Records
---
Amino acid sequence: MRKKVNKLGTSPKGGFDSKRAIKNCLVGGVFVGMLVQVMPALSADKDKKIHFNIPANDLATALFAYSETTGIQLSYPQKMVSGIKSPSVSGDYTPEQALQKLLAGSNIAHQYVDDDAVMLTEVPKQSNTGGTITLNPMTIESTASSESPSLTTPSIAESKAKLNRVPGGTTVIDGERIKEGAVLTVRDALTNAPGVYVGEATAGAAGPSRISIRGSDVNSTVGGPLRGLKILRNGMPFTRANGAFDTQTINLYAIDHIDVYRGASALEYGGSNLGGALNFITPTGYTADPLKIGMTWGTNGHVNPTVSAARVFDNGFDVYGAFSYLDTNTTRENNEQEQFQGHGNIGYRWNEDQETRLYFDVQENDFLAATALTKQQIDTNPRQNQNSFSLGNGIKVYRSDLKHSVKLDNGDRFDVGAYYFNTQFKFDFTGGTNRDLWEDTGFNWRHEINGKLFDLQNRVVWGGFTQWMFSNDTNYATVNRHRGPLLNAEHDRWVNVEGYLEDQLSLTDTFTLVGGVQLNYRNVNYVRYEGYVASAARPSNEADKDFFNANPKLGFTWQATKEAQIYGNLSRSSEPPPLSDLANIFVTPALDSQTASTVEIGTRGQSDWLKWDLAFYQAWLNNEYLIIPLPPFGSGNFTATNANSTTLHSGIELGLETTVPLNVVSSGDQIRFSGNYTWNNFHLDNDQTLGDNRLPAIPEHNARFEAVYQHPSGFYIGPNVQAVSSNWVDFANTLAAKPYALLGARVGWDDKKHWKVFVDGRNLTNEHYASAVAVMGNANGLDAAQFNPGATRQVFGGFEYRY
C-alpha cells in the first residue's frame, strides 16, 4: 500500500510573538501604500493616446482587456467573436486606433452608440453597393465582453474578474502561455505563478510532484499523494474525500486556464486549506480550435504527439476532445515513462439560461521508480538510478463529471454537479507488490445571489459538497520477481462534508467588505480484513475517527485608484491529519487537525507600464503535522505527528510583468519582461530541542525571470532563469541541498491562425542539482540518499497545426 505508519511522538513548544506580527503587518501595509501612490492614472479620453499592452489572444479576451484599459463598454453577440484570433496591440494609441487594430481582418465593424459605449456588428459579405454599407438587422445578445459562451465553464476574462474580487493573493494562468514551450510536468503549468513551489520527484517527466503554497504539505513523500491544497476542475472537487490528490492525474494538455488561490482565498468554492486552491479550467467546443494537431520531440527519446478537436452545433450541443501520448526515458537511467491521457466534454445549451456538461477522462501512466541520491552522487552523476528493485509501476484513471448551470435573474446563478473518480494503483517491487483501488464519488452545489443589504450592493455565495471515498488496498509478497501470495488487505472508507457561505458587501463604489465561514466534517473508517495480527499498534482490526472544523474569514478589497487595488484578510484554515493506515487511529496522543490563523495584506493591478501582484502574509500554525523529536530530548530520535506548539509561516509573493515597445525591427515589436519571487520564512518557534530551526523541504527563496522578444509576425525568442536557494533536508538543519540557477531559452513562431513551431532549451549549462528532497529528522551532518536529482540539459522542439 502507499502508506507509512506514523509512530508516537511529542512535539516542540513555543509561543505567539504578537509584537513581531504587528510589526511585520505594519511594514507590509506601509510598503503596499507607497506602491499604490506612485501608480499613474489612465485616461479614457477618445482623442488622447493611451498606452496599450494587449497580447495576441482570442478576440473575446482581447476585447475584454481593451474595455478594462479604456473604460469603454462593448456590445456584441458572443457567437460573432467565437474562434477569432486577434493581433497584439502594444504602444500608444487612441481608443479608436487600438480598436481598429484589434478588429483588423475580422470582418467586424464598430460604431459608437455613446461616448463610452461601442456596438460591434458583423459586416455582411454582400454589403458593398456603390460605396455604401448596409447593416443587416441584428439583436444584441450580450453587453459584457467577458461573458463565456458556456454557462458551465468560465472564460479567462470571467476568471480574472472573479479573482479580482478575492481579498487575497490570486493569479490567473493563461493556457496559451503554458504552451509557449514544451509541457512536461505540473511545474511548467505553474511556473509563472508567484508563491507556488513545485518540487519534482522524477527528472523531466510527467511524474509526481510536490506542490506547496505557503508551506503546505511539508512532510509528504514527494512521490506520494499531494495534501494541503484543494484541487478543483471547473469548480468541482478533484481532491479526494481523504484530502489527497495525485499530480499525475492532471491532464496538462486539456487546460484553457488555471485559477490560483493562495492561502485560504478560495472560500467561494469551499477552500479552507493553508496552501489554497488550484482550479483547472478545461476547453470547450466554444473556446478550442476545431482541430489541433501537435508533436514534440526532445532529448532522451522524448516523443509527445497531441490532438484535439472541437465543434459547436446549431442544435445546442458543443463537443471537445483531446488525446496526448508521452514516451520518454527522462534524464535518469532506468526511468522510462509512458503516459496516455484522454479528456472530453459534451455540453448542451437547453436555452439561454441553462446548460449541462458531461466531462470524462481516461488515463494510464506506466513508469519505473526513480531513487533518491546523495549530494555526492548528484555532483558526480545525477543520471544514475539504481532501481533494480522496481518491477514496473502504473496508475490508471477513469473519471466522469456531470455539471448543470442555471443563470437566474439579477445576475444570480446556480451550479450543481456530481462525479465519479476511479484510480487503480500498481506498484511492483522485489520487496513486495501493491494493488490499490481508490473510488471517489460525490456531488456539489453553488448558489450566487446578487442583491442589496442596507441599500448597499451585496453578493452572497453559498454552497457545499459531499464526498465518499472507498479504497481497497492489498499487499502481496513478491516471488521470483512476480506477484506472490496475499499478505494483508484493508478496506478504507472516507466521508467528507463541507458547507460554506461568503458575503461581499460593497460599502462604497471602491471598498468591499468580505466575510464568511466554511464548515468541514470528515470521517474515516478502517477495516483490515486479511492478514490481521493483534499488536500494540493495531489492537483491533477496525477503527474510525471523526474531525470537525469551522473556518471563519474576514477581508476587504479597496480599489484605491483605477489601476491599483489593495486587499487584506484575516482567516482560519484547517486540515485533518493524513491518516493512511489502521495504526494511525490508535496512536497516543491522538492525531489532530492542523489549524492556522493567517493575516495577509497585498496589492494587485495594472498601470500603463506595469502589471503587478504582491502579497505579504503571517500565519501561526497549531498542530502542524511535522517530523519532530522523540523524548528524551537530544536522543536524536524523530517521528511524524502533530506539533503541540505554534510554528510560524510568513512570506512575500511577488509577480511582475511589463511590455516595452521597441519599434526597432518593425513597427509593433516589443519585449515582454515577466518574473516572480517568493520568500518562504517557515520555522519552529522556540522549540525545546530545535530552537527556531527552519522547516525543511521548501527553499527559502524561489525566483523566475523571463525576457521574450515578440515580433508582430508571431516570432518570439528569449531567455529565462530559475533560481532556488538551499533547501534543508532535516529538521535539525544539518543537511541541505545546494542552491542552483537554471538557464533556459525559447524561440518560436506562432501566426495565431494555423501554425506554431518552437524550440525549448532547459538547463543549458547542465547544472547538477536536487529538484526536491525527502524530509528526515536529523541527518547529523552526514550525506544521505534524500535528494531527487533534477533534469540535466534538455532540448525540445515541436510544432502545432490549427484548423
---
Amino acid sequence: MEISDPIIVAMEASKLARKKPARKRPNKPDALPKPLAHPDNKALSPDAMFNLLRVLSEAGAPEPVLQAAANAQNAAASGDIQPLLEFFEAIGLDPNQIDADGGLGPTQDPCDVFPMSSPRAAAVLLANQSEDRTIEEEVEFMESVLAIDPKSVEALIGMAMECDDSDAVKYFHQACEFGVKKLKQDYRLTNYWIGLRNQMGVDLVERARLTDAIEILLPAIDEDERDGAGTRFFIIDLMLRLGWWDELGELLGRFPDDGIGPGIFAKAIRLHHLQPESEEAVKALKDAHRDKPFVAPILISPLPLPTNLASRYALGSREEGFVIARYLKPGLRANPGTIRWIRDSLNLSVDDQDGASERWKETEDEKYEEYEHKPGPGDLHIALDLPEVDETWIYHGQKNRGGDYLCLVLCEDTPVSFGSCESAPKTRELRQFILDAVCDPLFGKPRRPRLIRVANKATLNMLQKGVGTYGVACECVKPSAFEKMAFKEIAEQAGRGLKMMEESEGSSLADFDIDKIPGTDSPWFVAVMQPPIWVGDQSTPYRPYLQLVVDGEDGMILKTEMTQAIPTAKQQVETVADTMLRPMTGSPRCPGVIVTHPQLDRAEFDSAMRELTNSDCVEIVSGDDEISSLFKSLIIDMVRSNDPTGMALIEQDGVDSELLGRLYQAAARFYRVSPWNLVGGDQLIRVVSGSTPGHQWGVGVMGQMGQTMGLSVIDGVDTAKAMVREECDMNRLSAISVQFDEAFDLPPRELWQIETENYEIANEEAYPLFLRIKNGEGGHTVDAGEIRALIDMLNHLPAFLRQDRTKETTVHGVAGTASHLELQWISV
C-alpha cells in the first residue's frame, strides 16, 4: 500500500510558488486564456510550432531536442502523427496544453484552479501565473489582483510569500479569515483549503515563525476531523520543537488509535519529558519501535536526512522511516537528552544504520555463499562506509618458534593489526583478519587503505576477492632482504606481546608474593584517566577509564588497563601488582615508591596495597601538579597518535586558553538563545569583521529543521548567495561551519582541551565543532583572527536577529580596529 505525504507536497508547492519559470507571457489581466487550436490527431500550425520551439529554446532545451521536435512536426504534416505524440511524451508535455500560439498555458477553468478568488481575479492569476517576475514585480502584480478582489485567498497568500515576516503573518491571517468563510459556503473545497494551510505553514516554518505556523495549521484539525491530509504530523513536529507538552497531549488525544508513525513516537517522547525514565514512556517507545523499526535508527543517526524525500511511499518501508523521522528529528535536537534516551531504551548503537543487516545479506552472502560470517570488530557493511586513505599496508605472515603462525599488517613499519593461528590462514580466515584490521586498527581511526601489498601470488589470490568488495586494491611485491629482516623482527615482538597477553588472561593474583619479586629504587607513577576516546559497541558510546602505570625513571609505559566503570582502589592495586609480574617492558620488578595521581585517594590506595601484599615495603605517596601534567601530556600524545591529521585550535599561532574560553562561552550563549527559531534558513547576513580584514562573510543560521544546528560562515557574499540558490561550485568553496553536537562527535584533542580547561558548554548535546573549508577541502583549522571574528558574530547575532529588519546595518566597535563588526541583511 502506498500513501502520500501532504507536507512534502506542500513544501514542493511552496518552493514552486517562489520559483518562476524563465518564460515571459503577454500581460493581459482582463483576458481569459485562448482556447485550444488543434485536435490530438493533427499537426500544429506552422506559427504554433514556431512559437513552441521558441518557448522550448528559451527554457534551455538542447539542440537535439529542438531538432527532434521539428522532425516530428514534419512527420505529422505528412500524416504521421505518432512521432509528434512520442516527442510530447518524451518531454513530459500534454499536447492538450498547447494553445494556438504554441504557448504551454493551462486550459482549466480559472475558478477550478483558484476557487477561493472571484472569477475575474482567478482569470488574472491563471493568465499570469507563469510570469518571470522580480519580488517587487510580484508584489505589484498581487496588489493588482487584490484591487480586483480584496478577498482573494490565493492572492493574499502570494503576497505574503513575497513580504517580510511581520507582513507575511498579517496576510496569512487575512487569507485564513476569508478562506474559512468560503469553506463554509462550499465544503467541497476542504482538501484544497487545508492544502493552502499546509503551504502557509511551510512558509512560516522556513521563516522560523513556529508559533505563527501552529496558529495557522491547528484549525485544519477541526475543518477535517479525520485529518486526511495529515496536518497533525506537521503540528506534532512544531510542538515537539517548542516543548508544548500539554498541547501535544491534547492533539494526540484526538487521535487515540492513530497507528501512523509520528504520533506513536511523539506519545513516547512526551511521556519521557513529563516523567523522565518512566516505565510507561519506555514501553510506549518500544511499542512504537516494534511497529516502525526503521524510524529509531534514523532518529539517533548523526547523518542528515535525505534532501529529497519521497512524496509517496509504501507502509513499512525504509522511505516511510525517513518521512516519519522528518517530523520528529527537529524536536529531538530541541530537547537535549531525548536522543540518548532512545538509544539507551532500545539498546541501539549510533553506528546502527537502517538496513545494515540486509545490505550485508545482499552483498557478502551473495558473493561468498560458502563463508559463514562470525561476529567480530570487522564487518563488511562497516568497511563499505569507511573513508579511503592514501596508505599502503603490507601483510606479512610467518611461523613462530613456538609453532603457531603469526599474521601481521603494517603501515610504514607500524603494526595495524596482528594475530596468531595454528597454521597459515585460509581464504576466509585471511579475509576476516584484514576486515578486522580495517574496522578496528591498533592505531588511528578505522579506514580503508588504498592498497594492500603481499609477498606471494598465493596470498594475493586469496585476498583479492575479499578486500575488493570494499574497494581496496592488492598487489604482489616480493620484499627485499632488508624488509624481510625488519618484518621478522616486528613479528617476533608482536608474538611476544601476544604471549604476554595470553599469560595475563590466564593468570591470577591469588598467590601474589611481593617478597619474591626483585626490588628496584625506581618510582612508578600511577593514574586513572578518562581520555577523550569513545567505545561504540553499546547502545550509547561510552568513554572508558584508562589505568596507567609509568616507570618514573625512563618514562616508559609499563601497563594500560581499560574499564567501563571507574576502577576501585582494589582494582587499581591489582593492576599495579599485575604490572610487577608482567610489565610491558623489562623484566618483573617491584618499584621503590609508587606516586599516585593527585586525584586518586592515596589513603584508599595504600590500604588496598597493604591488604594485597600484607606488607608496607612499597611506599605510597600522592603526586603534585607536575605528575598531573605528565599524565595530561601522555593523553595528548595518545590522542595525537590516533588522530594525526589537522591541528588543534590551541596549537594555532596567536591562540591561547583565554581566547578559546571566550569562543566556547560565546558558542554556549548563542546556542541557548536558539537563533534558528528567529530566522529562516535561506536568509543571509553580510558580516564584516575587523579581525578578518579583506573578508566579507555571508552568514546563515542552521537548524530550522532540527538536524544540524549552528552557523554557516561563507567567505564572500556572492558565494553565500550562490550556496542558498544551490548554484555554488563546491570545489572553490571557502567557509567556516559552527555545528553543535554530542561530545563523541568532536575531535579528541578539542574535547580534551574543553574538559581540562573547563570551558563553558550549553548542554551535553551542544558541544561546538568549528570546521574550516578552503577551496572545497576540509581538514583545515580556523586561525586566531577567524576565532575573534566568530566570537563577535556569536555574541552579537542574536540581538541583530531580534531587531527590526528595516534597520539595514548594525555596527559594533570602532572602524579600523579588531573589534569592528558590521551586520547587514542581504537579499538572495
---
Amino acid sequence: MLRPTIYCMLLLLSFTQFGFAQVKKGFKYLAKSNYAAARTAFTKHAAHPVYAPLAHYGLIKTEFEEKEPELSSIYKMAEALYEDAGRWEQLNLKARKKLRKKFQFDTLNIKSLRIELEQKALTHYHDSSGILNFEKHLAVFVDTPSVAIFQQREDLRARMVTWHLRSLRTANYALLDALYNHHHDLLAQRGSRYPDHVYSFILDAFVKEHTYRNLSTFVKEQPGHWFSEACWSKEAVEVLRQDSIQLALNYLRTYPYFILDDWIDLHIERLSNGGLLLDSLDYAPTEWAQLAELRLGWELTKQLRTGKRLPTYDANLLRYLNLTAPSKRGYDLFRTALASYQRRGVWDKAIQLLQTAQKLYPDVTPPDCDKRYSFYISKNEWFKTALEIFQRPADGFSIELLPSLSQQGREELAPVFSPDGQSLYMALENGPTGLDVFICHFDSLKGLWSAPQKVDMLSSERDDLPYSITRDGREFLLAQGGKLMMSTFGATDWQKPFGLPLTVNEFPWVGRATLSSDGRCLVFEGSGNKKQAHELEPPFIHLYRMFKGDSRSGWSNPKAITTLMVEGGEERNPCFGPDSNLYFIADRWPSLGQGDLFFSKPLDGNSDVEMMAKSGISFDPSKFPKSDYTNWAVPKNLGKEVNTLGDEKHWLSIAPDNSRAFFSTIELSKNDESELYSMALPAISKAEKRKILLLPLGSIGQNLTGFKRREMILQVKDAGTDQLIAELRPQGELRFILNLPARISKIKYQVIESSKNPVALTQWGEYTIGTASLQNLPTPQLSQ
C-alpha cells in the first residue's frame, strides 16, 4: 500500500531536482550572455510550484541585460516584477527556505532588480519629457525608493515642472490639473503665488478643450477652484449650457457683479454670430437696448485687437464704460484699453480714462455674496496708485527687442554684462545638459553682438545660470544645479566655481542672486529657513542679504531685508546697479500690475562701526564701508514706461556705465519664449552715469610672480581734491577695470605692489576723462 506513495514522492523529488538544475543552468547561461539558452531554461519552469518566482525573475533579468530596453519595455518588466513578488508571497515557508538556501533568492533580489530598472528608466527622461509621462513612471514604480533614487526622482520632477511653467498659456487641461493637484509642493516652493498662478490657467484650458457647455463637469472635477465657489456660478453654468440669448441677457441684468460676466457676453456673441443673426423684432425694447450695449463692446474689442481704431473709438469707449458699469466685463475692457494707451505712450488719454473709470468702479460688496475678490475690494487703492504713476512726466524711451541676440528655438535667460560692457553672458538651453553659460561679444563697428559661445569653465552637467560680476571683474556669481557658486578670475580666465556657504545653499529654495559692484554684499531671493521647507504653504519669497569682509569666505549669515518687505507680499529678481541701486520685483508695494519693478538704495550705516563706537574701541572709520546694506530707502516704482498692468518677470542686468538695462522676459515675446530686450533707466531711479577706464598691466609688475601681480593695487585720486577715491586689484594678469561716476573729470593714479607691501611700481599719472563711456588709461611711467 505504501508503494504508490513512495513512487509519487520520488517523482516529485526528481521533478524538483530537474527544476533546480534547469533554473541553475539558466543563470549560468545568463552569466555567459547566452540569452537564448537562458530564456529557454527559465521558460521551461515558469509554472513550477517552487521555482516559478525564480524562473520569472531570470526571464526579466535576461530581457533587461540582453539589449538596451525602451521605456515601455522597462514599464512591462517592472509590472512583471510586481507579479513575481506576488508569486513569492504565495509560496509556503518551506519553499521560500529552499530558494534562499540554494539560490540566495528572496524579495531582496526582486527589489534590487526593480531599483536597477528604475535607474535605467530615469535615464530616459529629460526636462521636456512631460510631467504626465513621469506620473506614469511614478505609478509603475510605487515602492518607496532608495534615498539616491528618490533624490533623482525629485530632481527630474522639479526640472519638468520648471520646464512646464515656461509655457502655461499653451498647456492643456490634464497637464495643468496634474501640476496643481499632484505637484503643488514644487509650485509652492517657488513662491506662494505660483500654485494660484498655475490654477488661473486651468479654467480657460478646460473651456478650450470642452467648451462652455460642459462647465458642470469642471465644477465637479475642480471643486476648490474659485469659479466653482464663485457667487452665482451655478446659475451661470446653467445659462451657458443653453442656446438662449434672452436667458443670458436676463442673467446679466440679474447678476451685474458676476465675476465672469464676460463669458456670458461671449456666449451671446457666439449665439448671434457677432450680432449678424439679431433681429429687433425678436426682443423686447429693454433687451434690444442691452444688445446694443454688448455690440458696442464687441466692436471696441475688435478695434483694440486689430489696432484699427476708428475716429469715434475714444468717445465710444467712455460711453460704453458709462453704460455697463459696474460690470466686470466693462472693467476688463477698460484695463485692456488702458494697456493699449500705455503701449502707445498716449498718456493724456490714459489719464482721462483712469479718472473716468475711477468714478465708475468704486469698491463695493455685492449683495448676497460673501466673496472678497480683488475686483470687489482693491480697486480704490489701485486707481490711486495708477493715477500717481501715470501723472509723472514721461521719460520718452521705449523697450526694444535685441534681435542680434535672439536664438531661434532657444530661450535667452539671465543676461549679465561684463565689467567693461563689451561682452554679455547668458544662459541658453544646450541639449541634455540643460542650461549652460554662453558669452557674446559686441562689435562696435557693426553695432552687433557676436554669436554666443559656450563658456566651458562656467558650465556643468546641470542647469547653469549667470547672475552677477563685480565691477573689477574678479568675481562671478552663478548658480549650478540650484546652488549658488562663485568663480574667481585666474591669470587669464575664469576658474572652476566653488560653492558658497551652507548658510545660503541649505535654504529650501534659492532663486536669483546678485552681487554689489564692490563684491561685499550678496542679495538673493529665498524661501525662508529649512524648518519650514515641508510646510503645505512655505514662506513668501523675500530678499536676503549677506555681507563679507576682505576674505572671500567671510560671509555673514543671511538676513532678511525687512525694510523692503510688505506684509503678505513677495520680493523677487534682485539686481544691483553699478551705483548700488538695487532693482527688484515686488507685488505689494504700490503697483500697476501684480508685480512691478522697483528700486531702492542702501542707507549709510555699518553695524560693526556702530558696535565699536559704543564699546569705545579705537578704529579708523575710513577702513570700513559706509554701508553694510542692512537698511534701505523706501522702494520707488520705476514707472509707466517700464511696468505694465500685468505681472513683470524681468531678469535685469544693468550696463556698467549705468545707461541702460538688458533683461530677459517671456511676457513681451510673440514667440511665447524668453527673449532679450533693452531699455533705458527711468529718471526716477536717478541712475548716475559712469565711465569705465581700462589700464592693461603690460609691463607693470613684470618682475613679480603671477600671484603677486594679481595682488597689485591701482590707487586713484580725484585730481581736483587729491582725495583717494578708489583702490582696486587687477582682473587676473590682464588689466585694471576702473568704474567711476561721470561727474569726476580728472584723476591721478599709480600702481603699488600690494596693501601689505605698498611699494610704488609706477609713478603718479594724470588723465582727463573724455566723453566716451569706455576709455583706456595711458600706462604711467614705471618707478625706478
---
Amino acid sequence: MKKYYAVYLFLFLIISCKQDKTSESNALQFVSEKADFIIQSNDLYTFINKIDSTAFFQKNITLLKSLPIEDLRNISKFTSSGKSSLLSFTKSKSGYEYLYITEFKEGFFDLDSTKNKTVETLTIEGETFKKYTLDNLMVFTTVKNGDFIASNSRTLLLESINRKEENSETFSKALAAADKSKTSILINQDQLDRTLKNTFKENSLPLNFSDGWMSLDFDLNSKDIQLNGISISGKDADNSLKLFDNITAQANRIADITPTSASGFYSFTYQNFGKLYKNLEASRIDSLELPETNILNYTREAGVIFNTYGNTLVLTTTDPELAFDAISNSQDIASEFRDISIYSNNIDYSQFLAPLVPPMKLKYYAFTDEFVLFGETITVLENLISSYQNNSTLSKQGYYKETVSQLAGSSSLLIVGNNSHFTEALKNVVNDELLEDLEKIDLKDYPVVALQFVQDSNFSHIHAVMSKKSGSIPSGVSTTVKANSPIKIDGKIATTPFLVKNHDTRSLEVAVQNEKNELYLLNTDGKVLWKKKLDGRIIGAIEQIDLYKNGNLQMAFTTQNSFEVLDRNGNDVKPFPKNYKDAITQPLSIFDYDSKRDYRFVITQKNQVYMLDAKAQGVDGFNFNKTKTTIVLPPKHIRINRKDYILVSEENGQVHILSRQGKIRIPVKDKIKFGENQWYPEGRNFVNVNEDGKIVTINEKGKVTRSSVENSVHLKLVVKEDLKVTLSENILKIDKNEVNLDFGIYTKPQIFNVNGKTFIGITDTQAKKVYIFNKDGELLPGFPVFGTSNLDLNNSGNSIQFSVKGDENAVLIYDL
C-alpha cells in the first residue's frame, strides 16, 4: 500500500529541477534528446541569483544539491550577453553533466583579471577546445557555428559538437512551446519515469509519464512557485495521459471528501465512463469484462486518497440514487456510523480502473452525499465520514482554495500533496539513501502542492503550483480542528465525556460513564486505563480537586446515593465514599472560598443541605441545613467585593443568600419562578433567568428587578468573569455580538477560559453539530463538527482539546 505514495514525489522532482526554458537557435543541434532535462533562460545569471535569494530554496537547498549551481553561476557571469542560453543536464555516475550553449560574442569568458587560473588548449579528433581551471571550477569550452559551448564533461562536449542526428518532432514542438521571455524547463518524460521508479523501494506506480517531453514555464515570486506548460507525447506513446484522449475533463470534487489528515490524493475525471473504459481496456492485456449494469456508469470522477488509516478509492457520482441501485448486489450492512450505513463489498472496482488505479482491497463501501467510498477497513471509511461531517476536509481550508484558484477549473488528472503529512508519508517509501535528504525538506510555509493535467488534442496542459500560506496563525489556535479516532466503550454513554488531567504526565484523559453505571478512564488514544462499577448514575459534572494540596489530583462527584472521591488509578480516597440512604437530588457543589484548596463540599437532598470538609465531616459553624420546599438548583458560591455569598434556590420561589456560616446575608422577599438557569455575578448584583424568560437581578439590598429580553424564547444564560452569553431559540449573543444559528435544539452555552483565551461552546443535538466561538462571536475555523452532547474543553500545556459524545457508545476527541 505504501508504494502508492510514490506518485506524489513527481511534484517535488519537478520543483527540485525546475530551472529554465530552452532557446530556438542553432544551439539545438548540439543538444541530445537523451538529456534528463533542458533549461532555457534569457538571463541565467540573474535567475540563479534569484533562486539563491528565495526563501523556499534557502530552506530547501537539498533539492538543488545535485546540480552544479556554482559552475553555472560562474560561466553565466562571464558570458552574459542578453541573449537566451540553453542548458542541458544528463545524469552520470558522478552527478549531472551539463552542456551550456549561448550565442557567442567577442569578450566572452574573458578571465585575464582572474587569479589562480590555468588555461589549456586541447585538440582531440580534430576539434580544438579549451580547458579552464579556476578555484573549484573546471570547464571545457569551444565556439561552434557562432555558439559558445561549455561543459563540465569533455566527452559530452565532443559528442555535442559532432552530433549528426535530427531532433524528433515531439522534442521540437515542446521547445517551440516554451515562452522565450521566461525561464523554462523541458523534462524528458522517459528519464523522469525512470527516476521515479528508481527512487522508491518498490517499482510499481499506478501512473506513468513516459515517452515525450514536458515544456514548462517557470514563475518564481515571493508567494508562489508555479509551472505552466504542456506535455507532448508521440502518437503511439504508452503513458497515463494518453488514456484521456477524447475524454472531456470535469471539475474535481474529491478534495471535498479528503481529510486534512490525509497525505494527499489524486483524481481523474470524465464525462462518460464508457469512453474512458474503452481507453483503459485498450491499454490492458487482460480480457476483463465490465458488467453492463455497474456503479461506474453513474460516475464522473474517480481517485485515491492516501491516509494513515489506509488508502481509499473514491467515486463522485452523477446520480447517487442510480449509483446505489447499480450496486444492489452488494448491500449487506456491516456497520452503522453517524447515521450512515457501511456495506460489505464483493466487487473489486479498482480492476476496472486499471492502470489509473492500483490493485486495492475494497472490502467495504459507503455513500455520503454524491461520494462513494471504498476501503479495506471500516475504520478508514469512518475517518473519511467523520472528517466530511466535521468540515475537516482539504477543500474547506483557505490554503487549499488559494492554491487551486490558480489552476484550471477542470482536470483530466489532478495530483495534490498535503505537505504537513506528505513528507512523513514519503519516508516510508523512498530508498534508504534518500531519507537523510528528505528529513531536510522544509515545506511548513507551503501547505499544499498541486499538479494538474488537462488533456487536449495530442498534448496535455500542465499547471503546477505551490502557494505560500497567507497571514499568521494566532498562537494556541490552529487553522482547523482535528478529529482523533473515535473512542468506543462497552454500552451506551450516559454522561458528558469529561477531560481530566493526569498530574504525573500533565496529559489529558477522558472520564465517562456508560448506562451500566461503569465509569471509564481512558487516554486520548482510546486505551482503557481502568473501569469501575458505581452504585448509580453520576449527577452533574466530574470535578478535579487537590485534596492533599500536593499537586496530586482526584475526581469528585456524586451519584444518587453516594459522594465519591477517586484517585487517578480509580481507587477510593479515604474516608470516601460517603453513602446516603436518601437520594441526592442536585449535582455536587464545591466551594474553595480563598483558592487555598480548603474545599467545602455541598450535598443536596430534596430540601436539605449538608456541607462537608475534606474529611467528609460536617462543617462546624455552617448552620443552614433545610428549606421549606425542594431545592431546585445546586447551591452556588459567588464572591462580590471580597464578600462570599451562598445562594440556595427552592421550589416555592424563595432564594436564600447566605454567608459562609449559613446565615441570611441578604434577605430577599420577592419570589422567583426558577427555570434551569444558574445564578451568576454581574457587577455588584446577582443575575438569573426565570421561567418566563426574563432576566432577574437582585442587588446587594435584596431588591428584585425583572427585565424582558427581545425575542426571548427558552432563554439560556451563562456568565463567566466579565463575559455574558445568552441563547434564545437560535440567537446566540456573546456580550454584544449576535450570532444567528440554524434552527435546532441546542445545549446551554458553555464558557471555557484556557491558555489565556476564551471559548464558547454549544451543541445542536438535533443536527449533531458542535460549534465553538471566540469571545468576539467568531466561529473557529473548521466548525461545526460532529457531536451529540455538551462538550468539555481543557488544555495540556499549549495543546487544547475538547471531548464530546459521538455515536451512542463513542467519545470524540478534537484538537484545536
